[in-house]
Design brief:
This protein is mainly beta and 195 residues long. It contains one helix and 29 strands.
Amino acid sequence: MGEKNGSPTRNVVQAKKIVEALTQEDGDAVYVLRDAQVVGKLDLKHRVVHAAVDIQRCTFLDPADLRSCTFEQTVNFSGCIFRRRFSGAELSGSYTIFKKNLVCNGATFHGAMRLVGGQVEGSAYFRGAKFLNKDQKISFAWASIGGTLELAKVTFRGPANFNSVKCEGAGFFWGESGVHGCHVQRPSILQQYQV
């Protein structure tokens, strides 16, 4: 990372280059990207990603479309900033499958964030995440988590929907979310929650 006019500059990466790298059958076992600015729609809709995804502290300027994508390995978006919509699923049945863990610790979501009906076979971690859109609902409705769902020390600035979430492990919700000390044992079903 260099400097321009006294402020840090970030490496600019085209989203289509990330999609190309992630969807190669014989690609790297782990795709790593750090401290970059991602330009263009991250369109992984209807794709299979075999590599582990380790993208941290990156800023996505355009939407991330993960609908009907299957991730075979762990996906880590820790510290990333999503300026626009992050869509892992919608009501239409285009559900995203994470075969391992989904890690979004410290991530910031400025647009809508949807994992409606999504399936995480491992655990889903959103420790310290910020959901800042006051107008668009954050939704984990009907999602299925095979391990732990952790939303510790999260910030919700708008409505959040956890209707009928199935969590085989434990569900942890506390912090600015307004759900202090909530610990749901297996299997858990959380009703709709709005802040």
